[in-house]
Amino acid sequence: MADDGNGFGRAAAKVDEARLWQRHVDMARLGGTPRGGVRRLALDANDIQARALLAEWARPYGWAVAMDDIGNLFIRRPGSDAAAEPVLSGSHTDTQPSGGRFDGIYGVLAAFEAMEAMEAAGIRTRRPVEAVVWTCEEGGARFPMGTMGSGVFVGRTPLEKARAVADYDGITVGAALDAARAALPGVAHRPIGSPIAGYVEAHIEQGPILEEKGLQIGVVTGIQGSRRFLVEVEGADAHAGTTPRARRRDALSAAVAMVGALERLFHDDPSDTVRFTVGRFVVTPNAPAVVPGHVAFTIDFRNPEPEILRRLGDQVDPICQANRGQCTVIVTQTSGGAPVHFADRVPDAVEAAARGLRLGHMRIFSGAGHDAGPLHAVAPSGMIFVPCEKGISHAEAENATPADLAAGTRVLAETLVDLAR
Amino acid sequence: MADDGNGFGRAAAKVDEARLWQRHVDMARLGGTPRGGVRRLALDANDIQARALLAEWARPYGWAVAMDDIGNLFIRRPGSDAAAEPVLSGSHTDTQPSGGRFDGIYGVLAAFEAMEAMEAAGIRTRRPVEAVVWTCEEGGARFPMGTMGSGVFVGRTPLEKARAVADYDGITVGAALDAARAALPGVAHRPIGSPIAGYVEAHIEQGPILEEKGLQIGVVTGIQGSRRFLVEVEGADAHAGTTPRARRRDALSAAVAMVGALERLFHDDPSDTVRFTVGRFVVTPNAPAVVPGHVAFTIDFRNPEPEILRRLGDQVDPICQANRGQCTVIVTQTSGGAPVHFADRVPDAVEAAARGLRLGHMRIFSGAGHDAGPLHAVAPSGMIFVPCEKGISHAEAENATPADLAAGTRVLAETLVDLAR
Q1: Helix, strand, or coil here: B132?
Q2: Using the beta-carbon criterion (under 8 Å), do B288 and A139 form an inter-chain contact?
Q3: pLDDT (tens digit, 9 = 90+) per residue, A206-220?
Q4: Class of the domain covering A225-337
Q5: Which of B95, B277, B309 to mutate to test the interface with A (most CBs of A within 10 A)?
Q6: Global pTM value
Q7: What mean pLDDT do residues B143-171 have?
Q8: Contacts of residue A263 in chain B, CB cutoff 8 Å?
Q9: By C-alpha distance, which of B101, B164, B96 is closest to B136?
Q10: CA–CA separation, B233 vs B345, rounded Å?
């Protein structure tokens, strides 16, 4: 493969660990929290500013920057064949409400760094390579729809459906997108969903396995499936001091009974492979002296096995109904995704790159959802994991080392050179 | 008692049912909600406006209007003996976050109407009579301290302690009071806690008993005791898709276990006299894909029996500790009040007035807390209850009839004439 001047390892050798780290530091200022985390919600001012900063970094290279109608941002390094479908790499710039400095943004910065490394190495690829920011990956952090930008890109979600989604303050994605568009006047427009040749996403593992095994690279083979539910419990507001229990329709009491029963159902010791989380729980009117008349809570349920997803997920509604007491309850499945198994092409390329660079690696299955999930439906896709401290993620304490971030980026650079030949 | 020209029934005869109802309608506009309730939180713009409106209504009568340092408002109808301690009557203008049109405001408007009726009847009392608005009766609706204004008035709570209390947005009572002061430039200032001769408070029952028995008047003999707690559960934020249950420190899961165990402890079928409510439950970061790292919830526990208050209340902390799982928990008792038993003077006067007016009445114990609780520590105090529809209160559906409100006001007017002789 050396005949095109792109001999193995030349791109990796130009990955600049200090520059990559500094870019993480710069991005972490956009929405940085006092406790060292990041709060950069999808399409908020900081998330838009992150796009502007990337566009600024691209300018010295003369790389074209474009945004599509769902706010996905693309930075294009041309290939020698202008008609060839591009290879994409990226992730997301949005975070959880009290998120960390690496989830998502690492994949974007790694893609950008890989393109810079190719440039520094003078590598010519046949296909264009694009660094991409997918809009609103973090479902429910602001808008209750995850992998929104990638989902629209691949045609899984109609654009108008995504634009109609409202955040908890009633602001729609459409309104937020229009504001983003206005704030980025120098960024060109491009249509949604042009064909691509492949997709690779670098990401922190968000789990403890690589750290525990002392390996720098996870060759991701797939993503576990998920079902998410919204449970709305309706009772009646009442006076806490005067209303006998027999006359109460206490929505919190019913919701607590439901969560308790669901936890028993989803308990799977000792295997502990079922992921069941009630992460959002909103009480109305939420006043100490009022028996609550309304509770809404979310269920995030994930598993690698379709059969377990079906069997346990189908019991959510009956369990809630059985524990509603004097209240009524409506259970809605808000999203669901089958487990993803990546085709061999990208994982094999990632593995070959890790081996070639003599980096400790293993095949690994992703517990978290990622934009690579939707992308896998339209092109060979895969992911590269690097360790994060104690497996902590979706938290301000999230941490990763400059060396591990650079190692993953070296593997990414070589993988992109391979895929873009 | 007719020798002073104040013969029984003359004040009651001048109570104007239509005027009293219209004043309720006018007040319900201040913070009125689309569903027919009222949201007028302590010292918010509507609550200040309610004081301004009362002052405006007082002006034609030439009655002095004054406010003390905790925002309690006093409207004074003079007596023949300027040196005599006044008799007070009133309640509060603040509501629950989604409260009703009668809780609190009825007692204020009934006192004002009773003074108007005395005026119309040409009744002279020896003692001054004052209609009073007590600041922030509804604990936790905005500021986490109930019967604040009356508590400061009687010396139970130091002014500076009350001023330092902050709402859920961090705004202190002190800052809100300064804004109220500035918004009411025409209202005189007066010192806190001058001596009083007695206190009578009219209020909707907030329970179903009078309605069920077909009686218009409750002669309130006391108020049940209460203990309120704040429970703060600390775990660790974690990724919902990747973190095994064995590694989680899920604050919501622990809080749900605590509430479930507490509900079992406080269950007292068939007597159903224990009032146990978790009314406020706040999850952080409250995002669907994040295992919650923090939950804070309140417990409102009330009972007429000191022994039950002690025995069950003392088990709150051990029960929470036993159910904390991998989290830590801190339980704080935020307030507590022993049951109140009013001295005979005022209940006897209320009962005599109801009997004299031939209104169906009964002695009744209050499940809800009221400003009459603190007042009872410094002067003979009591209350008059009127029915409310289905006993519903602390809810937008709260309702009462013009006829019942007027009947309670007639009893109040005669009681005030009696106490102010």
Answers
A1: strand
A2: yes
A3: 999 999 999 999 999
A4: alpha beta
A5: B277
A6: 0.88
A7: 96
A8: 253, 256
A9: B96
A10: 47
Arithmetic mean of pLDDT, A345-356: 98
pLDDT in tens, B347-359: 999 999 999 999 9
Instruction: Specify burial of residue A224 (Cβ count, 10 A radius: 0-12, 13-18, 19+).
Output: buried
At residue B5, the pLDDT reads 64
CB contact under 8 A, B369 and A300: no
Chain A: closest CA distance from residue B386 (Å): 14
| Architecture category of domain B2-224+339-419 in CATH | 3-Layer(aba) Sandwich (3.40)
Condensed to tens digits (0 to 9), the pLDDT of residues A53-92 reads 999 999 999 999 999 999 999 999 999 999 999 999 999 9
Enumerate the residues of chain A whose CB falls inside 8 A of the CB of residue B367: 239, 241-242
In Å, how far are A133, A371, B277, B325 from B299, measured between CA atoms? 45, 42, 6, 20
> How do the domains of chain A map onto residue ranges?
10-224+339-419, 225-337
What is the predicted ipTM?
0.88
Element (H, E) at A160: helix A159-164
Q: What is the DSSP string of B345-402?
A: HHHHHHHHHHHHTT--EEEEEESS--THHHHTTTS-EEEEEE--GGG--SSTT----H
* pLDDT tens digits, one per residue of A128-172: 999 999 999 999 999 999 999 999 999 999 999 999 999 999 999
Residue in chain B closest to A142 (alpha carbons) equals B287
Task: Looking at the structure, give the CATH architecture of the domain made up of residues A10-224+339-419.
Answer: 3-Layer(aba) Sandwich (3.40)
Of the candidates A188, A176, A198, the one whose C-alpha atom is nearest the C-alpha of residue A68 is A188
Q: What pLDDT was estimated at residue A3?
A: 42
Torsion of CA A21, A22, A24, A25, to 10 degrees: 120
